[in-house]
Amino acid sequence: MINILDIDWMGLALPFAYIIVLVGALMTFSTIYRKRKAAQNANLAPWFGPHLQRNVYHSLLQLDDAEGEKSPKIPDSVLRAALMRRAVEDIHRLNQIKNAKQACSSLLQRGSVGDDLWQSFQRAETEMTEELRDVVTEANAYAPNWGQTIFAAAHNMTANTQLRESLNEIQSQVATEREWWERRRGQIQTEFMKELDDSSKATSGAEDDAVMVDTPVKAGKKKGKK
């Protein structure tokens, strides 16, 4: 067995000191790096603007939880409607993230954009994941399993809104299209009548310029007097 007293502790002091200094340096570097990274992320421009629907919902909850006789009681129907509008806005933002993810990834690989834009996009993805989880939790608090269907309903509302906007846009263009077609039809009729008139004039001119051929007189009929 190795006797502890026979170990050269003085000789092992230097390696242990080196390991301790190395670990301390790595921990210090990691701490500084995380703080600097957090500061950079905090200074990044947000991918989306303020979430007004979420702010309205939270304001209604604060009014509902406030104490005092002057504080109005917010009906659950109003809170549900506010939460649904919040979910609809989340669907809009989620679609924007899905559409922009592939484009941002391709631009980042080509070096066309910097890491700041990609970090801002990743932070927006994380925030959206937390937002969706929060909406599901709030929905389940109003009705069991509502969190599993609220986004499906929000998606249908978004699709119906887009369809209605498309129809309104088409309807707004009907008058313009009709006016254009009436003007175009008048131009076609004018050009057609002009072509007919030119064709009639050309035919009349050809008849006027036709050459009349005289019939020759027979020699036997013409006799001189003796």
UniProtKB/TrEMBL annotation:
- What are the transmembrane regions? 12-33
Q: Which UniProt keywords apply?
A: Membrane, Transmembrane, Transmembrane helix
Q: Which InterPro entries match?
A: Sec66
Q: Which Pfam families match?
A: Sec66 (PF09802)
- GO CC annotations? Sec62/Sec63 complex
Q: Where is this region: Disordered?
A: 193-226
- One biological-process term from Gene Ontology? post-translational protein targeting to membrane, translocation
- The domain of life for this entry's organism is Eukaryota
Q: Which PANTHER family match?
A: TRANSLOCATION PROTEIN SEC66
Protein's name according to its UniProt entry: Translocation protein sec66
Q: What is the lineage of its organism?
A: Eukaryota, Fungi, Dikarya, Ascomycota, Pezizomycotina
